[in-house]
Amino acid sequence: MSTLKIDFTQDFTLSYELNFGLNNDTNAAGHRINFGFGFVGGADGISVIFHNDPDGANTVGAAGAGIGASGIENGIAIEFDTFDNTPFGGAEGNGGGNIGPDHTAIRDTDDGINPFGGRPGNPFNPIAGTSVVNLGEIEDGNFHDVVVNWVVATNTLTWSFDGANVGTLVEDIPTNRLSGTSAFFGLSASTGSLRNRHEVTLKSFTGNLIFCDTDNDGIFDYLDLDSDGDGCPDAQEGDGNFTSLVAASGTLMGGILEQVTQVHLRTQC
Questions:
Q1: HEC secondary structure over the chain
Q2: Distance (Å, whole) CA 236 – CA 241
Q3: Cβ-count burial of 259 within 10 angstroms (0-12 exposed, 13-18 middle, 19+ buried)?
Q4: pLDDT by residue (tens digit) across 236-269?
Q5: Which bin fits 233, alpha (ψ -120 to 50), beta or left (φ > 0)?
Q6: Which of 20, 138, 161, 217 has its CA 20 to 30 A from that of 27?
């Protein structure tokens, strides 16, 4: 998740490449499990998130069907969902919501209740008035182009997949969903019993970014060893058991920042 905020008072465009792995229901060579109704493989997908959760850049959503986004406060998630949770009680299709095949939709990350664990944020209910779009089989081992675009004048958020527009939300997102005119942003991915290799590349960004200083001590969060000023170092607050993807050189393995263009920085949140 970003340590900067993206400015929703200005137009912006985010361009990513997303790879959802190679495990799927029909790939016998991949990781599949027979749950009694046939073999299934691959899970659970990737989400593009904008939020103002109190935990800021350290926030973490629910795993599995939550795709790392459900439960995040004051947020929205554009999901690219690669697993059908219907046989497990996930109510795919609830209220015209998610569908079985790999698909995309947009949802409010803390709206409703997640049936898996009871946390806020039902991952099966898209925002009213938006569509769920079937993407076909996207767990094909290839990188897919995803572009997210925000136009302030019309309060319109759109996103495309491999050049085709697949989603639109028209509303005052900062007021209705984010509780602020700027928001943390980033991507999340998750799995449950099944697994896949999820990879992301930020190709380009055009818009305004805002440095954050949560505790107002004059040190930007990304440089502050205790960004919230609670006396507990961020390194300790973020302690956990994680699989490291950082090479000895300090670079992120498998990630490439190709281009960042027209970035304007402001210093207030």
A1: CCCEEEECCCCEEEEEEEECCCCCCCCCCCCEEECCCCEEECCCEEEEEEECCCCHHHCCCCCHHHCCCCCCCCEEEEEEECCCCHHHCCCCCHHHCCCCCCEEEEEECCCCECCCCCCECCCCCCCCCCCCEECCCCCCCCEEEEEEEEECCCCEEEEEECCEEEEEEECCHHHHHHCCCEEEEEEEEECCCCCCCCEEEEEEEEEEEEECCCCCCCCCCCCCCCCCCCCCCHHHHCCCCCCCCECCCCCECCCCCCCCCCEEEECCC
A2: 12
A3: exposed
A4: 776 555 444 444 544 444 443 444 344 444 444 4
A5: beta
A6: 161
Whole-structure pTM value: 0.75
Decide if 74 contacts 53 (C-beta within 8 A): yes
Written as one letter, the residue type at 265 is L
